[in-house]
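ingest -> validate -> predict -> emit
validate: passed (alphabet ok, no gaps, 326 aa)
predict: started
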Amino acid sequence: MRRRAPTRSLLPLVLSVLAGLTGVAGLFGLPGCDCGGDTSTPAGTGVSCATHATPLSEPRTIGRATLTPEDRAIAITGLPETSRWVVARGPALSVEPFLPVLDAIEAAQPDVVLLLGSFGTGERLEELVTSLAELTDVPVLLLPGPRDRVSDLDAALEAHPAPHVIPLAGVHLLEVGAVQLLLAPGSTDPHYVLDQACHVDDVATLLGEGDSDRVRVLVGFDAPAGTPLTAGIDGAEAGSEIVREAMEDAEIQAGLFAGPNTEIGRWRDASGAPSVAAGPGLRVIVPPLAGAALEGGSGVRSAAGPLVVSVGPTGVGPASAPNGLP
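emit:
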């Protein structure tokens, strides 16, 4: 694959320090930030990105995947029964170049790339979009978070068009074989939401759009409260009670989440028990795509980088290495 060398970001190194401070706030259950590269602007009035215009008007084939829109859903066909996805939070707070990140994504041999918010602003956002444009043979899906203004993302994609890079604001679910990924762009907690960025005002309604006969997985910023996955220092709860109640009411157990920064990259089932194999009802907090390692409530440090996820008949879970490699 021919690739341009991405331009080195000139954002100050202090952003890496702020990334660590963000993790500390998340561990204590405080209203920290997943700052999208704009730490000078206080949280403000969010917007419901779930009502944004949908990105596709007709089917689009990218690599072996065909994405077919229907109302506010996108069906993804042409993939293996169990497909490989690279899932991560965006790299807004890092200052590292993207070339090594693209190499890591390609090495994982994904069928789909899914980024959950924290895309950055200004130069960093443009650098992300132009770098993702190099991954031409897989769909790259961008679900905005509470520090992402959809207008900024739309402008960056218009300035650097790439048909395989698709924003998911306005899309409520992805259908992948037997699995439905239910999308919650932004946060339910206004403390996390940047002014005019994505706010989830009714997660219960979004979850209600799923088909109870399918395997349903919530994908969003806020992990549900109540398990070791969201336990911070000294057991401080950093998860969302709103999301927990909505998932229980909708009888949804599985999820892929971008926060809080408590236990990153470690799979657990709905009861909180750890899991090392794919299966029903699993959930995980995904790492940032790039940046400094983050320390969880147990003191274990989690490295940044893409998380490889299997999406198949039983739901989501850890994926095996490609081609039998360790």
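Confidence is low (pLDDT under 50) at residues 1-43.
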